[in-house]
Design goal:
By secondary structure, the chain is of the alpha/beta class. The chain has one domain (3-180): Rossmann fold. The protein has helices spanning 10-13, 22-27, 51-57, 73-77, 90-104, 120-136, 165-180; strands at 3-8, 32-37, 66-70, 109-112, 139-141. Strands 2-1-3-4-5 form a 5-stranded parallel sheet, with helices on both faces. Helix 6 links the parallel strand 4 (109-112) and strand 5 (139-141). The longest helix is centred in the C-terminal third of the chain and has 17 residues, at 120-136. It is globular. 41% of the residues are buried.
């Protein structure tokens, strides 16, 4: 897979490393990447910068071979509703993103989680995503349940949610390349 579309918020953007994230590192390794990331945004469709609005209005310059979406920590922080069938819930937003990407691009879809941090709401979001995996035919890059990713490790994390550049380069980039290429 050479062309990869990334959708997300501050973690995808690289907010704690001057806008440089694992996406940019993947781009340095022979992949064509499109980074559609805005800090502070949500999966839940609220406003012009939500994931869904940006996905539907910002044009990707190529047909992606894979689509990677961040399970937004902002939805947890803002306590957005977990369950529901419309785009104003996390579940409904996830399903709409998947539906849209399958119809528009027809490529494999991956969601990625943040490493474990102190949030029961985000933990419920990860559990929801995992429960939908087979039904919706998606891959999950699950750092939440991976002991190699420690949100308290100051060598790799700027805070409990945002990696620093070293974290992106040494931990995140190799993991994403491995997962997207099929382990």
């Amino acid at each position: 897979m050479k062309n990869i579309y990334f959708l997300g918020s501050s973690v995808t953007y690289g907010a704690a490393s001057n806008g440089h994230s694992f996406v940019d590192e993947i781009g340095k390794r022979g992949f064509n990447v499109f980074k559609n990331a805005v800090s502070g945004t949500t999966l839940v469709d609220e406003g012009e910068e939500s994931y869904i609005k940006r996905l539907k209005t910002i044009k990707c310059p190529f047909k992606p071979d894979a689509f990677v979406c961040q399970l937004s920590t902002n939805d947890a922080t803002l306590n957005k509703p977990l369950r529901g069938n419309d785009v104003h819930s996390i579940e409904g937003a996830i399903k709409e993103i998947i539906r849209y990407v399958k119809n528009k691009y027809g490529c494999p879809i991956y969601f990625y989680t943040s490493p474990r941090y102190d949030s029961k709401h985000y933990e419920a979001m990860v559990e929801l995503l995992s429960s939908l995996k087979d039904e919706l035919g998606i891959g999950i890059i699950n750092m939440w349940n991976d002991p190699c990713f420690d949100s308290n490790d100051k060598r790799y994390m700027a805070d409990s949610i945002h990696p620093n550049k070293k974290g992106y380069v040494e931990l995140w980039t190799p993991l994403f390349i491995k997962k997207i290429q099929g382990d």
